[in-house]
Specification:
The protein is built from 20 helices and two strands. With 422 residues, it is mainly α. β1 and β2 form a beta hairpin. It starts with a helix and ends in a 12-residue tail after the last helix.
Length: 422
């Protein structure tokens, strides 16, 4: 239709300019029988040629009609497929929401009131594996992590006040040492690093950056921790852990969980940069890496690609920086249930998920890939791979293998593991 209008307009223009009259090309009556007017440029194949050109043959017209019908059919097929896909996604989302609502009732009415009795039962562990409902997630994390340090909200306020005093007095006391034996200059550098890192914490959410609703809370928790644990101070990666806790807990509770979480052996080894302990964790990880993914293990070994290259960032942030936030929270769910072992099992699950891709890569591309994982990684696929990982070497479980590695290293046996070579 638009082509006919354009030709008519051009003819009228020509007549006005030359004074000559031209007959417009006759409209084809064939178009009147169409069920609908073609709106795309693909419909041009059905247009008749201008009158000054030879008309289409019957065969050519039929072929064009067939091509157009095929295009329309393909477009309809894609539309139906997309509609089915959208419907499936909505159905899965609705089912997921129903499951979360159902699980929430069980957690609130049955499990939490009887926590000590029910936490280790098979039913609760299976429900836990499926992911905690957001409404109870913070409470369950707090209970699972515990409070061995006996920190109270009042104690948090004390260390927060101390941190605020330090922020005000740094310029006057930068050359003095504090009572714990950590120089004020070092503490100042630690607190300056906090300011820098807060702006880098979940930047796409815009809630932890300056002016955001959680900026001051994150700053307070991290600052208070540097005063509470001057021997550890602030280490990059902590801001992500504190931020995840803030999203699920009230401020004081988040600090209590944060301090206790970082006091666990694995986190303490990494955040205090205890190289010997870190090497033991890497060596234990490699035992299960070889056991579960022998082909990929040999591929990594051929490039001397050791676990520290990718595991450090994963462990430091408990996957909250490496994985989508909702998926990271589900990893945290089971980590709170199973402890440090699950962090390394998750690492093996990621390697299993991308095994075929990684086997085609060299050292540089593997390192780049594992440093920035694909954003489309899904909970279902990852947890399916994690479930397939066996955390048992022969008859030894994670804790037993770790104890053996500790013993072997003490005796000077390096087990020929590349991760143990300094």
């Amino acid at each position: 239709m638009w082509l006919h209008c354009l030709l008519t307009f051009r003819l009228q223009e020509y007549e006005a300019r030359t004074g000559r009259t031209c007959k417009p090309p006759p409209q084809s009556s064939r178009r009147k029988n169409f069920e609908f007017e073609p709106l795309s440029t693909t419909a041009l194949i059905l247009e008749d040629r201008p009158s000054n050109l030879p008309a289409k043959s019957v065969e050519e017209a039929l072929r064009h009609r067939q091509e157009y019908d095929e295009m329309v059919a393909e477009a309809k097929k894609r539309e139906i497929k997309d509609a089915y896909k959208r419907k499936k996604i909505m159905k899965e989302r609705f089912k997921q929401e129903e499951n979360i609502a159902s699980a929430m009732v069980i957690w609130i009415n049955e499990i939490l009131p009887n926590w000590e009795v029910m936490r280790s039962t098979r039913r609760v562990r299976e429900l836990w594996w499926q992911g905690l409902p957001p409404s109870v997630r913070g409470k369950v994390w707090s209970l699972a992590v515990g409070n061995e340090l006996n920190i109270t909200p009042e104690l948090y306020e004390i260390f927060l006040s101390r941190a605020k005093e330090r922020w005000k007095s740094f310029s006057e006391t930068s050359s003095e040492n504090d009572a714990e034996g950590v120089s004020v200059a070092d503490r100042e550098a630690s607190l300056e690093l906090i300011k820098l890192d807060i702006s880098r914490t979940f930047p796409s959410l815009y809630i932890f950056q300056k002016g955001g609703p959680y900026h001051d809370v994150l700053h307070s928790i991290l600052g208070a921790y540097t005063c509470y644990r001057p021997d550890v101070g602030y280490v990059q990666g902590m801001s992500f852990i504190a931020a995840v806790l803030i999203l699920n807990l009230e401020e004081a509770d988040a600090f209590i969980a944060f301090a206790n979480l970082l006091n666990k052996p694995c986190q303490l080894a990494f955040f205090r940069v205890d190289h010997n302990m870190m090497l033991k964790y890497f060596a234990t990880f490699e035992v299960f890496f070889e056991e579960n993914l022998s082909k990929l293990f040999l591929h990594f070994k051929s490039y001397s690609l050791t676990p520290d290259i990718y595991l450090i960032d994963w462990i430091f942030t408990l996957y909250s920086k490496s994985l989508p936030l909702d998926l990271a929270c589900r990893v945290w769910d089971v980590f709170c249930r199973d402890g440090e072992e699950f962090l390394f099992r998750t690492g093996l699950g990621i390697l299993r998920l991308y095994e075929d891709i990684l086997l085609q890569m060299d050292f540089i591309h593997i390192a780049q890939f594992l440093t920035k994982l694909p954003e489309d990684i899904t909970s279902e696929k990852l947890f399916s791979c994690i479930a397939a990982i066996q955390m048992q070497n022969s008859t030894k479980k994670w804790t037993q293998v770790f104890a053996s590695v500790m013993k072997d290293i003490k005796e000077g046996d390096k087990n020929n593991s590349p991760a143990l070579k300094s």
